[in-house]
Amino acid sequence: MSAQRWNTGLKLAAAMAVAVTLSACGTATVVKSSGSRGGHSTPQTSVAKPGQTATVRKGDTLYALARIHNITPRDLAAWNGLSEPYTIYPGQQIRLYPGGSTPGRAPTTVVTAPRPGTSTPAPTPAPVPTNTPIKNNINWRWPADGALVGRYVAADVTKQGIDIAGTSGQPVRATAPGVVVYSGAGLVGFGELIIIKHNEQWLSAYGHNRKRLVNEGQNVKAGEQIAEIGRTGTTRDMLHFEIRYNGKPVDPQQYLPAR
């Protein structure tokens, strides 16, 4: 895989942090150590705020929120189940305390030294992800007609969605009702891109459009035309489509109806 294609993938998995995220072969707002809300210094220890959450605003990064709320980026990511590149999106609720913690207690991980003559127990391995679709009440529909020319590959940051072949100007439709949280061409490698938020957990993204027909903040219905297929950011007319759960890409074919 070329370095250029790898970096392009990280940008969409980095863009969903600035406006939400995904990949044409990639993913969007890789979180940087600078943020949009002020000049707080990065904390060395965390101060949990039991019961409190922060709403992500456009341009926020995990690091910026961590500084603002006096929490280490590592703790904030762990409390919200986020892995690198720590993608967040506008409207997302970020928990400012660890799950199941006692109110008022400090949040950071506590390491207990073993007693003399005893061995340290091996850490419990993380659960292995399964291919079972995540339960949801969204009636997903195909965003465009055409042959599937690119499939989702979990381990490949450049293939975090599917590619649907089409002809220039062909309709691109919303896969489910929601609100447009990004509509622009600011992510190199994805051309004219649209991202829709369906609820607090689910997002969908549509890349390489010839023309965008919706604006940020606009509510859309399932099946409503939102763009026209094109080849912006790629070499052929096609739609790059992604579905994300809590900012993490999932295989769209597990959720779209069979055809």
Overview in brief:
This protein has 259 residues and is of the alpha+beta class. It contains 3 helices and 12 strands.
Characterise this structure.
This protein has 259 residues and is an alpha+beta fold. The strands form two sheets. Strands 3, 4, 5, 6, 7, 8, 9, 10, 11 and 12 form a ten-stranded antiparallel beta sheet that branches. A hairpin with a 4-residue loop joins strand 7 and strand 8. The chain is elongated and about 55 Å long. It has helices at residues 3-20, 62-68, 73-79; strands spanning 53-55, 93-95, 148-150, 162-165, 171-173, 178-184, 192-197, 202-212, 219-220, 225-229, 238-245, 248-250. Helix content is 12%, strand content 22%.
Summarize model confidence as the mean pLDDT: 77
**What's the overall geometry?**
elongated
pLDDT < 50 stretches? 18-36, 100-129
Share of helix, binned:
10-25%
Please give the alpha-carbon distance between the first and last residues. 31 Å
Please supply descriptive tags for the structure shown above:
3 helices, 10-stranded antiparallel sheet, 259 residues, alpha+beta
